[in-house]
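RECORD TYPE: inverse folding
INPUT: structure tokens
STRUCTURE:
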């Protein structure tokens, strides 16, 4: 992987991490199109640059994370409860998840099916009751955490799964989206830490790899800052349908390419 390729992958990550289109799926396909060898460092890079994207959440919502008041402890408890399912399932099935990361076919299918879901999801939850995450109890947070686990399948979209999970738990669309952003922080921090611990030999003594990771995280951070604001605005105006059409088109394009014999893995 060259610095230029690292920047391209990081831009894709920053743009798609918080959109309901699957950042992992887009990075898998982008890596294949760029001809990047799918080695252990590439897999580590695609997970760890998500840390840069989630730091954008902490900066944009710094009052939520860093200003302590009577509601803050409750907020952190909900995040901890919600992230537990992903920590357990991610640890138990780490190798199987890594294997799925090499499958553009899985990405194509899940992008397509997820797109169909997004075409209709705005009409499923028409009577939200919770207009602030302060009003959400820990049991609802835990259920959203289980919804998040679906996104361990590449192409599903962590953002889409958790937002739909939040809406299913009676959160308004905007509150569900923001809680999805907040939940990304402990989830991806844990995933990055675990991946770095397992792959530390790829970083220690390899300054070029460390440089690529730093570049990737910085670029993902900057791009994600813009993408979050854009997504919230588009969600208020248009809902999920536009993202559904996008996912369907991309999913069909990937499946057609595979059917025609194009090699989408390296």
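DESIGNED SEQUENCE:
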């Amino acid at each position: 992987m060259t610095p230029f390729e690292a920047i391209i992958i990081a831009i894709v990550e920053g743009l798609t991490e918080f959109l309901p289109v699957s950042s992992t799926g887009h990075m898998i396909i982008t890596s294949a199109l760029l001809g990047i060898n799918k080695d252990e460092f590439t897999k580590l890079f695609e997970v760890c640059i998500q840390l840069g994207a989630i730091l954008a959440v902490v900066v944009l919502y710094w009052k939520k994370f860093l200003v302590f008041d009577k509601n803050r402890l409750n907020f952190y408890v909900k995040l901890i409860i919600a992230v537990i399912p992903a920590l357990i399932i991610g640890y138990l099935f780490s190798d199987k998840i890594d294997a799925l990361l090499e499958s553009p076919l899985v990405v194509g299918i899940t992008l397509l099916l997820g797109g169909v879901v997004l075409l209709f999801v705005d009409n499923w939850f028409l009577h939200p009751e919770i207009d602030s995450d302060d009003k959400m109890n820990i049991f609802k947070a835990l259920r959203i955490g289980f919804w998040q686990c679906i996104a361990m399948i590449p192409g599903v979209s962590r953002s889409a799964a958790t937002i739909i999970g939040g809406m299913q738990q009676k959160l308004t669309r905007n509150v569900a989206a923001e809680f999805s952003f907040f939940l990304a922080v402990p989830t991806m921090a844990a995933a990055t830490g675990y991946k770095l611990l397992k792959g530390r030999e790829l970083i220690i003594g390899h300054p070029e790899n460390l440089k690529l990771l730093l570049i990737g995280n910085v670029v993902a951070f900057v791009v994600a800052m813009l993408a979050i604001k854009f997504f919230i605005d588009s969600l208020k105006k248009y809902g999920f349908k536009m993202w559904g059409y996008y996912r369907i088109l991309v999913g069909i394009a990937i499946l057609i390419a595979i059917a025609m014999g194009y090699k989408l893995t390296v």
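NOTES: The CA atoms of residues 117 and 244 lie 7 Å apart.
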